[in-house]
Specification:
The chain has 225 residues and is an alpha+beta fold. It has six helices and twelve strands. It has helices at residues 21-30, 32-37, 99-105, 117-120, 123-133, 145-158, and strands at residues 5-11, 39-42, 45-48, 55-61, 88-89, 97-98, 161-163, 170-172, 175-183, 186-189, 199-205, 210-216. Strand 11 (199-205) and strand 12 form a beta hairpin. Helix 5 crosses helix 6 (145-158). The radius of gyration is 19 Å and the shape is globular. The relative contact order is 0.23.
């Protein structure tokens, strides 16, 4: 994923309403300042959007988690060894496969719903899944800890929270949108082809009027830092 994943931050000066997120996203991708700074990966090269966006698809992504407890069931169901190492398993296509990726991808896996159906739709889980599956050429981790730590750090950097002054309860105030943008010839951003690991999320903080674009285009990443 190195070299093909990015987070870009923008500010806006209008009110944001979740029910009007389609219009917000379309205006965002048509803004000249955004267009001038937005790039995408094609044939291994980063290029600017060269044609105007004419429409967008917007999917609201649940984002309510303020702890990592969502992942607790993974530690006690047989996906991991007692020392936190990911248990290997056989696969018809992938020679180096494991029970964690099986749980993430295979609906027939006995562990698929060890994390509940609703929680699998949470932005926190989707972020974890994206990191675990990685890019086209990916050396997967032997232990789960690097995935958990990286997911936690990126999640904290992307979302905003607030504490209720009376109950002291912490809650997420960010709105997360998964977006696909189209020009006159079809889908243009985050990529022309549908691919689970090609994605862009808009993380909107309507209090600070900030939006972060979290983007990845599936392919062969860089091999050196």
């Amino acid at each position: 994923m190195l070299g093909r994943i990015s987070a870009q931050c923008y500010s806006f000066d209008q009110n944001f309403y979740p029910y009007d997120s389609q219009k917000f996203a379309l205006c965002f991708f048509r803004d000249p300042n955004v267009v001038a700074s937005l790039s995408k990966m094609e044939a291994g090269t980063s290029i600017l959007l060269d044609k105007p966006v004419v429409s967008v698809d917007v999917e609201m992504v649940p984002c309510t988690k303020v702890s990592m407890e969502l992942f607790d069931p993974i530690f006690s169901c047989g996906i991991l060894s007692p020392f936190g190492h990911i248990v290997k398993c056989l696969h018809d296509v992938y020679p180096d496969y494991d029970k964690l990726r099986q749980m993430l991808q295979d609906k027939d896996s006995e562990h698929y719903y060890v994390v509940g159906r609703e929680d699998r739709g949470e932005f926190l889980f989707l972020l974890f899944k994206h990191l675990c599956l990685g890019g086209e050429l990916c050396q997967h981790e032997d232990a789960i800890d690097p995935y958990i730590r990286t997911t936690k750090q990126i999640y904290k950097d992307l979302i905003s929270v607030q504490k209720d002054p009376e109950t002291k309860k912490i809650s997420v105030v960010s709105t997360v949108l998964k977006v696909r943008a189209y020009d006159e010839y079809g889908r243009c951003y985050p990529g022309k082809q549908e691919e689970e690991q090609t994605f862009v999320y808009m993380v909107v903080d309507h209090f600070k009027r900030h939006v972060t674009l979290f983007y990845h285009n599936y392919g062969v990443g860089n091999f050196t830092l």
